[in-house]
Amino acid sequence: MKLTITTLCLSTLMMCSCFTAHSSDKGELTGVRSRGTGWRHDRPLGMVKIDAGSYIMGNASYDPSSALDGQLKTVTVASFYMDETEITNNEYREFVYWVRDSIFRARLAQKAAEVGADSDEGVGYYRYLSSEEEETPYHEYMMRTYGSLNPNAPNEGRRIDWSRKLDWGREQKDIYSVEVRDGMLLPIESRLSAELEDRIDTRQLIYTYVSIDENRAARFGGGKIEDFMQTHNIAVYPDTTVWVRDFIYSYNLPSMQTYFESPAYDDYPVVGITWQQAMAFCHWRTQKKNAYQRSRGEPPVPAFRLPTEAEWEYAARGGLNQSPYPWGGPSTMDSRGCFLANFKPMRGNYMADGVYMTSPARSFAPNSYGLYCMAGNVAEWTLSSYEASSTSFVSSLNPTYTLELNHNKVIKGGSWKDVALFLQIGTRDYEHRDSARSYIGFRTVQDCPDIGVGKNRKL
Questions:
Q1: Which residue has the higher pLDDT, 405 or 134?
Q2: Dihedral over Cα of 20, 21, 24, 30: its sign
Q3: SS3 state of residue 23
Q4: Does 290 fall in a domain?
Q5: Exposed, middle or buried: residue 297 (CB in 10 Å: 0-12, 13-18, 19+)?
Q6: How far apart are CA 70 and CA 389, in angstroms?
Q7: Which residues have C-beta within 8 Å of that of residue 217, sequence separation ≥ 6?
Q8: Residues 388 and 261 in one domain
Q9: What pTM does this model have?
């Protein structure tokens, strides 16, 4: 039987229900109560809550490019959580390493199956779990009925023991393990020096996930859910060559070679990330958190995602309506003559603000919401597509403009290479979603389910 969007939602509600009715209601209508002491949504680590509110969106001063994309409009946004800082190299590296290890582990299990390894010796240490080792009625039914726990999974439902420790060194368990490890490295002809002998071929680090265009499904419901599904195969490793390609006649090789991998830059914002890579990171972060939630019998959390343009601008203002910068006034300096952000002051004096390229993600003072570097350091991807006149036709409630055919995505905040104009909150800029730059990063948000709860703020 083919499911419609409506029946899918109903079945999801029944399957995911975490509630139980009172047995002592005396036949009265008491509602379905949650288990335990009540519902609570914990603040995600490293994020701050932005309460729902209204503000005047747009550039309140002037439109220097005459693009007519700085029109003013009063809009309202719901509550959400936002990362205190841009996603750092260290945080994004966790994503890259997870993809790397997952591929390695899956290939080891596949090799164990190919050679018939059925013990913990050699590559068999990573073999698929047998039905005797871990079998439940659910697993048995799914495998008998569908031949897989997940028909879309590359392992065809065979389960991997994720607790087995991986060894990336040269002391592998047997020749089959060595073969699998070698297949993860750069081709032999590319290993020109000792430093490259153990170098991972980053082109193999592909993160595959399936998304559902829920917005489109809601608007054009009635069809099959498959009509709104899309499979993404995303190469996750940052494009480190941006440090050279973005600047002609400039010696930036050290940054290309060390910026992402060196521990010296752990707390610096990750760059060289496309919009699609940022979206893949959001999906992975959601899956990681909800895997933990399932292990504790807790309900799933709302998905992590990129902020809409309106959410980003609202958060950057920090409650200061129509202020040109996150810190308030029209100047980029404080009363002592110190610059308040990492950008290109004086139209070329990079060092005037204390750093000549990116700075640690927690640099400079945060705005009144506790958010760092909402102006300068690196510009940030948003969820929204760019259209010069979008402010005039988007909704005034949680506004955003997203169009699948429009691959130009709004970036906000300006960067270390920009003059002060691009640091202004209302300034709009964009890049193609496939572009990777040395001056564009991102931060994530998560919906906060407390509709209508906000704080009164002075305009």
A1: 405
A2: positive
A3: coil
A4: yes
A5: exposed
A6: 9
A7: 5, 225, 227, 228
A8: yes
A9: 0.88
Length of the chain as a residue count: 459
Looking at the structure, do residues 127 and 97 belong to the same domain, yes or no?
Answer: yes
Per-residue pLDDT tens over the stretch 232-259: 999 999 999 999 999 999 999 999 999 9
User: Rg (Cα) of the chain, in Å, rounded?
Assistant: 25
84 and 122 co-located in one domain? no
Q: DSSP secondary structure string, 120-188?
A: SSGGGGGPBPPTTTS--HHHHHHHHHHSSS-TTSTTTT--B-TTSPP--SS--SSHHHHHHHHHHBPPG
pLDDT at residue 7, as a whole number: 39
Q: Which DSSP string do the residues of 371-401 spell out, in sequence order?
A: ---SSSSSEEEEEEEP-TTHHHHS-SBS---
Among 267, 269, 270, which residue's Cα sits nearest to residue 238? 270
pLDDT at 405: 85
Is residue 19 domain-resident? no
- Select from 184, 204, 224 the last residue of a domain: 204
Q: How confident is the model over 159-209, as pLDDT tens digits?
A: 788 888 998 888 888 999 999 999 999 998 877 776 677 899 999 999 999
Tell me how crowded residue 77 is: count the other CB atoms within 10 A of its CB. 25
Decide which of 156 and 456 is more confident: 156
If we measure between CA atoms, which residue out of 326, 331, 327 comes closest to residue 314?
A: 326
Torsion angle defined by CA atoms of residues 413, 415, 420 and 426, in that order, rounded to the nearest 10 degrees: -10
**79 shares its domain with 136:** no
On the question of pLDDT at 21 being above 60, the answer is no
The answer to whether residues 240 and 93 touch, using CB atoms and an 8 Å cutoff, is: no
* pLDDT band at residue 38 using 50, 70 and 90 as cut-offs: low
- The Cα 382–Cα 296 span in angstroms is 32
Residues 359 and 381 in one domain: yes
Compute the distance between CA of residue 233 and CA of residue 206 in angstroms, rounded to an integer.
6
Pairwise CA distance, residues 386 & 166, whole Å: 44
Q: How far apart are CA 143 and CA 149, in angstroms?
A: 6
pLDDT digits (tens, 9 = 90+) for 299-346: 899 999 999 999 999 999 999 988 899 998 889 998 898 999 999 998
State the number of CA atoms in the 13 A half-sphere of 146 facing the CB.
13
Using pLDDT thresholds of 50, 70 and 90, give the confidence band for residue 459.
Answer: very low
Run of H or E including 207: strand 206-212
Q: Please spell the DSSP secondary structure of 306-326, one letter per residue.
A: PPPHHHHHHHHHTT-TT-SBT
